[in-house]
Write the structure tokens for this entry.
Amino acid sequence: NAGVTQTPKFRILKIGQSMTLQCAQDMNHNYMYWYRQDPGMGLKLIYYSVGAGITDKGEVPNGYNVSRSTTEDFPLRLELAAPSQTSVYFCASSPGQGYGYTFGSGTRLTVV
Amino acid sequence: AQSVTQPDIHITVSEGASLELRCNYSYGATPYLFWYVQSPGQGLQLLLKYFSGDTLVQGIKGFEAEFKRSQSSFNLRKPSVHWSDAAEYFCAVGASGNQFYFGTGTSLTVIP
């Protein structure tokens, strides 16, 4: 039972480059989320999805895009990377309203 | 607006001592409340959750939390701390769309 799988675990980007953070879950959860974690700031919601084909913005969506073509996958796209996007990114999934999240192990991204 | 406050950035306790981590929330309706633990370099793991009913909830690893509506609090407790409990602890409140708002975390150090 893999749970939530994130790839890559680490990445260094140059300013202006683009990349996609991958997230896959094998629990048939409808809800999926992307958070970023910065020191002393807790976790901030970037985007979330309540099912395939449905996505919505969270607290800090600027500079990011998502898609949800299948129940299993929820990739996060960074366009024109900026130093402010240096962070640890967590993907999470949930079976529904009121349930806790299952988190992936995170992607540590550095933009230089 | 929903928010979560963890007033203690860092706590140090001796192994075998009791522990209480504070969490205060702001939410208009009856909240879903959660505690998560994060070990270094790892994702977050759900410790326990409160939806309704008994205000004292039991979780994994010997943790418990008490919901006090009058104080808007959901404090985490453990009677006897083990060295392996050293980690970062996050309180979260669940809002509409199953979005979670996280506190900024409390870092726990356990000394022998």
Notes: Chain B has a mean pLDDT of 92. The interface with chain A takes residues 4, 9, 32, 34, 36, 41-46, 49, 51, 90, 94, 97-105 of chain B (CB under 8 Å). The radius of gyration of chain B is 13 Å. Chain B is about 0% helix and 55% strand.
